[in-house]
Design a protein that fits this description.
By secondary structure, the protein is of the alpha+beta class. The protein has one domain (5-154): Nuclear Transport Factor 2, Chain: A (Roll), CATH 3.10.450.50. The chain contains three helices and six strands, in the order ααββαββββ. Strands 2-1-6-5-4-3 form a six-stranded mixed beta sheet. A hairpin with a 2-residue loop joins strand 4 and strand 5 (122-136). The longest helix is centred in the first third of the chain and has 40 residues, at 5-44. The radius of gyration is 20 Å and the shape is globular. The relative contact order is 0.16.
């Protein structure tokens, strides 16, 4: 039986695309899991869980506009963040995310998402998280996190509103 080269090339190409799709989706799922671990740890007040997804030399920033209309940009620290997460507080920190977009190339990933932050059931603020991760020793670690914060202009999906 004679099989043409064109048929074999097509089968090989389709197989290659399927394998690539599996690899990229697997990386995306692992990145998503690191992002979700961050927010799960925040909700539970578990600073060890939160710390598990961060590189020790992470860079953290926040961008916002003050009530007076002044644009502010502040640097944070992992130490202060972990202390705040682990310090007992009356209401859980519930950061709801949506529109999660993940891009991966080799050991570099970028996750971009909208969020709404609640203290228990009380809305606090919303914005966007932009997170860069590196794969280190088989685990995706957050190396850079920057967010925007505002109290108005939040288009929160109905299923996430409290």
């Amino acid at each position: 039986m004679k099989i043409s080269y064109k048929v074999n090339a097509k089968i090989l190409y389709i197989t290659f695309l399927c394998c690539c799709g599996f690899c990229f989706n697997n990386s995306n799922d692992e990145v998503k899991q690191s992002v979700e671990t961050l927010f799960k740890g925040m909700f539970q007040g578990d600073s060890a869980m939160v710390h598990s997804v961060f590189w020790d030399d992470v860079r953290m920033y926040t961008s916002f506009t003050t009530a007076e209309g002044k644009e502010e940009f502040r640097k944070g620290s992992i130490e202060n963040f972990l202390r705040a997460v682990g310090t007992p507080h009356e209401e859980p920190w519930d950061e709801q995310i949506w529109n999660l977009q993940i891009s991966v190339d080799d050991n570099l990933a970028h996750a971009w998402m909208n969020y709404a932050f609640y203290l228990g059931d009380q809305f606090s603020h919303c914005g966007v998280n932009a997170i860069q991760l590196l794969k280190m020793d088989g685990k995706w670690k957050i190396v850079h996190l920057i967010d925007t914060r505002r109290k108005e202009g939040c288009d929160i999906p109905d299923g996430l509103k409290k």
